[in-house]
Amino acid sequence: MTDGTPPGADKAAFIAAARSNDTAQFALITERYRRELQVHCYRMLANYEDAQDMTQETFLRAWNGRASFRGHAAPRTWLYRIATNACLDFLDKHGDRAPGPAGPPGAGSEVHYLQPYPDRMLPEDPQEAVVARETIELAFIVAVQHLPPRQRAVFILRDVLGWPAPKAADALELTVASVTSALQRARVTMRGRLAGRRLDWRRPATHELSDDERDVVKSYIDAHERNDLDGLMALLRDDLRFTMLPDPGALVVSAEDAVDGWVSSGLFRPGYDDWRCVATTVNRMPAAALYLRRPDDPDHRLFTMAVLRVVDGKIIELTGFDATGKPWLGLPAAL
C-alpha cells in the first residue's frame, strides 16, 4: 500500500542508499528519524534506555531488511513499522514489562520500569504530533502501559500519530476490523485512566510551562534547600499522588502520607539536609534535580529527580526517580 506521500528526493535517496549497500549513506539518511522513532519506542515501553536500544535495533533491522523497501511507502512509515514490531518483540520476550496490580486511576507505581524522558532528546519541530505535551507526560505514558501490547501499538499509531486504519493494519499485519476493534477498547481504557484530562491528543497544544508551574518548581527547590518541611507541605494538594521509582509498591495517595514517609526515611535529618537543586524539565513537565552533599564529601552529588504535575498552583502528582548513573538525563553528576 502507499501512504499518500508523493515520491520525492528523500524517498529516491533512501532507495539509492539501500540498493548501493553503502552503510554510511544509509545510516546518514535514517539518522534524521532517530529522535521521533525513539519517542515512539518510549511510548511503547515507558523506559528511556529500552527505547534507545529498540531504536538502534530498528536501524539494524532496517539495514538488514533494506532489500524489502520498494518505495511503496515513505521511509518514515517503513521505519515506524519496523520500530513498532521491534517493541512488540521486546514485550513478547519480557513478561515483567507489564503494570502490576491495578491502583487508582492515574497511579504510576505499578509501572516500576518507568523512566523520565529528557526534553533535550525530543524532536526539535514543536509542530510534530509526536511531541505534543499531552502524549509525552508521565500520566499518559503510564496509562498506555495498561494496554495490551498490540492494542497499545494500534492506539499509538492511530490516535497519537494519526495513521489511518488501513495503514496501521498493514504495519501490524492485522485486518482493518481488528485494528478498529482494538482502538475502541484502547480508548475506553485510556479515558478511564486519564479521567478529567484532555483526550484530543492530536489537537495542537502548548509545549511551554505555565507561570504556575515555574513558580511551584521554584518554591519546591527553595523549600528543599532550606530544609523546610512545612514549606514543602504547603505546596502539596491533599490528594497528592507520590511514588519513588524504581521501587515497586512505593505509591502513596495523600500529602500527609507522603510527608510522613519522607520524615520516617530521614529527610532533612543529618546526612540528608545539605541540598542543592536545579530546575529542569522532562516529559515536558516541570522537574527538580536534587543534589545531596554527604558530610564527608566536598561536592553535592546528583541524587534524585522530582517530576511535578501542578494543578491550580499546587502539586497533585510527584514522581521521584533515582537519577544516579543516568548520563542521558543531561545533568551534571556533581555541583
UniProtKB/TrEMBL annotation:
Any matching Pfam family: Sigma70_r4_2
Molecular function terms from GO: DNA binding; sigma factor activity
Domain of life: Bacteria
Chain ranges of the RNA polymerase sigma-70 region domain: 31-95
UniProt KW Transcription keyword: yes
Keywords associated with the record: Sigma factor, Transcription, Transcription regulation
GO biological process assignments: DNA-templated transcription initiation
Start and end residues of each RNA polymerase sigma factor 70 region 4 type domain: 140-189
NCBIfam families, per database record: PRK08241.1, sigma70-ECF, SigX5
Subunit structure and binding partners: Interacts transiently with the RNA polymerase catalytic core formed by RpoA, RpoB, RpoC and RpoZ (2 alpha, 1 beta, 1 beta' and 1 omega subunit) to form the RNA polymerase holoenzyme that can initiate transcription.
Family, similarity comment: Belongs to the sigma-70 factor family. ECF subfamily.
Name of the protein in its database record: Sigma-70 family RNA polymerase sigma factor
Organism field: Bailinhaonella thermotolerans
